[in-house]
């Protein structure tokens, strides 16, 4: 979507501090028995790696399929987030099955395949979910510990709010009492103004429908309205779970992290103590294909627990490869069923992304810089030398959330939002042509207002296609398959048309870009525009859904143990039964912080 010139010059890597504890090849591993084995060194996995090794007597092995993030400069540059995937060395390169709700289109479905997981390749938007999202999780799981009253204390452990790169006065741009200042992951407000910022802010004064929101992090504070983006970056550099939680624990002798170590399956280690349960304390993994010398598989065993943190795709895939899933489906791919659970891999839910493009006046959007190798090089140099300017900042400065009108027929018979304060859709303003998968035109200046469905009701699935762990699973999110989902996306397009009609845009916006958007004037034509262009904003959850201990459905219990098993938990985005109203990395971080406390408590 951005100019290819961007990718060439950043190959000249800068040296970053090395993580002494990281082994690059499974063959370097010295021991095969640990207290805990964490499958996946991603967002949640590295939170656990840090917290569990706070006790120096505890040993932890992290097995990460992907590469190390060391020396991959692009990952550190906030503005380059959108260039890191899809189809790169740090991506799993998945695609979705042809989507009936999207005119049969299939498209990229990125997932980080690198230390830090998706937190190393994401777009750095940072929020916590709404209090209603967490209270709904508490209510579904029957565990009051998931409610926001309890969860908000983890904000302090997790977040380290730091000044913006331009050092401007941030009074009125966030609410300090909602944030942590001594945690692990750096978070900051925008530090490089865009041409459109004053117009976005003026719109919040001109249109009552889009009020200013002083803090966009969620939690106790309403998400509704437009405010300043908070990014997981500090000092102009991305803060991932690897550069924060792992970097801070990497010298602990109890921690071993191995990259290029894809886990192929979990191995049953006998019957569990509770009747009818199966213990899974061994993990089979292999050297990556890139290192033929280490080919073959190894098996490591946990004294206490195996924790799956391989993400919404990876954890669902590994559970099925290990015989935990729907018996008939497992049989059809020649996997021996050990624990019957037909919800494994089902209930996939995700936020959709629609890039609404506008042609704009002048040449002060970022498009001209991105088309010019010289201007891009200069912006990169400024980042490399001073960690300031365009590349040190996110691609977005302002965004916000909205609800459908309370009398909308879409809310009958039930409102799928987590509660009356939680949004139905999101709007993201950016000073550039942003259109995943579709290259920018050679001329023109653009603004993009992305709209996102915040409380989708469509449900899909992730199912293995064979018993070969290197085969990508079948990923079918089943996007826009309900009347609520398509209807709300249609309303989001109407909302941004009202937004752009504010006086603030009069001398700036020329008009919609692209024939389909220009023609989208009735509900029917907006529907065909939405179905023709929408993709994903990369927030899949639900394939190992949490439910109450007594529930007949669901994959994990409220303490994240896998139903019907012993010695096995899942800790990652897959356990959310509903996708939080916000971008999902913050909710995953908080979930993992509490999971670490639960695991420590259970193994005292
Ligand atoms: C392109 C993109 C942009 C995004 N933008 C944002 C954003 O701006 N803001 C936001 O809040 N969220 C964003 N997200 C979503 C957010 O990053 C994820 O919800 C979150 O990071 C998921 O955390 P996780 O721990 O569940 O999985 P991950 O962080 O993906 O970690 C899973 C890890 O497990 C590893 N793994 C998988 N299978 C195996 C295996 N078989 N063996 C060993 N290791 C394995 C993976 O390589 C990975 O490292 C984005 C995601 C993507 C992909
Ligand atoms: C993804 O595609 C890139 C580019 O083709 C490639 O280098 C990488 O190895 C692929 N990753 C996987 C997991 O296949
Ligand atoms: C949330 O849980 C705490 C205990 O962890 C309890 O005191 C509080 O009342 C609960 N709040 C809600 C809204 O359920
Ligand atoms: C992370 O490590 C640094 C350096 O050891 C230390 O100063 C800092 O307090 C640590 N941060 C946290 C939150 O533990
Ligand atoms: C950038 O915009 C913010 C918000 O409007 C403002 O506080 C800040 O002073 C601006 N910085 C510059 C250099 O204009
Ligand atoms: C924008 O236009 C001005 C005046 O024509 C020109 O000097 C400048 O280089 C242009 N900037 C870009 C980014 O194209
Ligand atoms: C970095 O900052 C210094 C001091 O402000 C300035 O002189 C220099 O030009 C900057 N470098 C780049 C590449 O912008
Ligand atoms: C845990 C969970 O939410 N399971 C549900 C998944 O979806 C199916 C079909 O909608 C339900 O029957 C399950 O209860």
Automatic annotation (TrEMBL):
Cofactor(s) it depends on: FAD
Annotated GO MF terms: flavin adenine dinucleotide binding; pyranose dehydrogenase (acceptor) activity
Residues given in the record as FAD binding sites: 114, 263
GO CC field: extracellular region
The protein's Enzyme Commission number: 1.1.99.29
Signal peptide positions on this chain: 1-20
Active-site residues per Swiss-Prot or TrEMBL entry: 539, 583
Keywords: FAD, Flavoprotein, Secreted, Signal
Places the protein is found: Secreted
Annotated ranges, domain Glucose-methanol-choline oxidoreductase C-terminal: 456-592
Domain Glucose-methanol-choline oxidoreductase N-terminal as annotated: residue spans: 34-352
Free-text function comment from the UniProt entry: Catalyzes the single-oxidation or sequential double oxidation reaction of carbohydrates primarily at carbon-2 and/or carbon-3 with the concomitant reduction of the flavin. Accepts only a narrow range of electron acceptors such as substituted benzoquinones and complexed metal ions and reacts extremely slowly with O(2) as acceptor.
Family note: Belongs to the GMC oxidoreductase family.
Self-association and partners: Monomer.
Name this polypeptide is given: pyranose dehydrogenase (acceptor)
Organism taxonomic ancestry: Eukaryota, Fungi, Dikarya, Basidiomycota, Agaricomycotina
């Amino acid at each position: 979507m951005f100019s290819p010139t961007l990718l060439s010059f950043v190959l000249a890597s800068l040296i970053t501090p090395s993580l002494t504890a990281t082994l690059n090849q499974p063959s370097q591993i010295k021991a095969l028995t640990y207290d805990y084995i964490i499958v996946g060194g991603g967002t949640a996995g590295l939170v656990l790696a840090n917290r569990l090794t706070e006790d120096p007597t505890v040993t932890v092995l992290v097995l990460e399929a992907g590469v190390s993030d060391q020396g991959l400069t692009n990952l550190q540059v906030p503005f380059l987030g959108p260039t890191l995937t899809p189809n790169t060395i740090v991506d799993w390169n998945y695609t979705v099955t042809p989507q009936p709700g999207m005119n049969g289109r299939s498209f990229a479905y990125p997932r980080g395949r690198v230390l830090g997981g998706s937190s190393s390749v994401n777009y750095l938007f940072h929020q916590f979910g709404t209090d209603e999202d967490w209270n709904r999780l508490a209510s579904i799981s029957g565990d009051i510990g998931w409610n926001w009253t309890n969860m908000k204390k983890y904000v302090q452990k997790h977040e380290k709010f730091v000044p913006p790169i331009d050092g401007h006065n941030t009074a009125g741009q966030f609410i300090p009492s909602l944030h942590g200042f001594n945690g692990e992951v750096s978070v900051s407000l925008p530090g490089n103004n865009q041409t459109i910022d004053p117009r976005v802010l003026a719109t919040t004064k001109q249109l009552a429908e889009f009020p200013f929101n002083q803090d966009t992090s969620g939690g106790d504070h309403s998400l509704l309205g437009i405010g300043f983006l908070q990014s997981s970056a500090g000092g102009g550099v991305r803060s991932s779970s690897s550069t924060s939680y792992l970097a801070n624990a990497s010298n602990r002798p109890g921690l071993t992290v191995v990259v290029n170590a894809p886990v192929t399956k979990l191995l049953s280690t006998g019957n569990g103590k509770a009747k009818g349960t199966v213990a899974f304390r061994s993990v089979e993994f292999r050297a990556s294909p890139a290192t033929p010398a280490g080919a073959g598989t190894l098996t490591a065993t946990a004294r206490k627990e195996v924790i799956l943190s391989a993400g919404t795709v990876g954890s669902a895939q590994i559970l099925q490869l290990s015989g935990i899933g729907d018996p008939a489906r497992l049989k059809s791919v020649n996997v021996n069923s050990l624990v019957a659970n037909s919800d494994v891999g089902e209930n996939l839910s995700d936020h959709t992304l629609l890039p609404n493009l506008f042609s704009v006046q002048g040449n002060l959007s970022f498009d001209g810089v991105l088309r010019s190798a010289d201007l891009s090089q200069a912006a990169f140099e400024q980042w490399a030398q001073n960690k300031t300017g365009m590349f040190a900042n996110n691609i977005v400065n302002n965004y916000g959330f909205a609800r459908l009108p309370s009398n909308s027929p879409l809310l009958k018979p039930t409102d799928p939002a987590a509660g009356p304060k939680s949004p139905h859709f999101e709007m993201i303003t950016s000073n550039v042509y942003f259109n995943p998968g579709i290259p920018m035109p050679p001329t023109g200046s653009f603004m993009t207002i992305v709209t996102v469905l915040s409380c989708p009701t469509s449900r899909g699935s992730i199912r293995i296609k064979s018993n070969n762990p290197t085969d990508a699973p079948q990923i079918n999110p089943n996007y826009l398959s309900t009347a609520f989902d398509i209807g709300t996306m249609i309303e989001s397009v109407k909302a941004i048309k009202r937004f752009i009609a504010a006086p603030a845009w009069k001398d700036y916006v020329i008009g919609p870009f692209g024939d389909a958007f220009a023609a989208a004037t009735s509900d029917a034509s907006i529907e065909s525009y939405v179905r023709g262009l929408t993709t994903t904003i990369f927030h899949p959850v639900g394939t190992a859904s949490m439910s109450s201990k007594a529930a007949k459905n669901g994959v994990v219990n409220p303490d994240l143990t896998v139903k019907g098993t012993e010695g096995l938990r899942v800790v990652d985005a897959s356990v959310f039964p509903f996708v939080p109203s916000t971008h999902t990395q913050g909710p995953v971080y908080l979930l993992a912080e509490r999971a670490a406390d639960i695991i420590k408590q259970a193994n005292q």
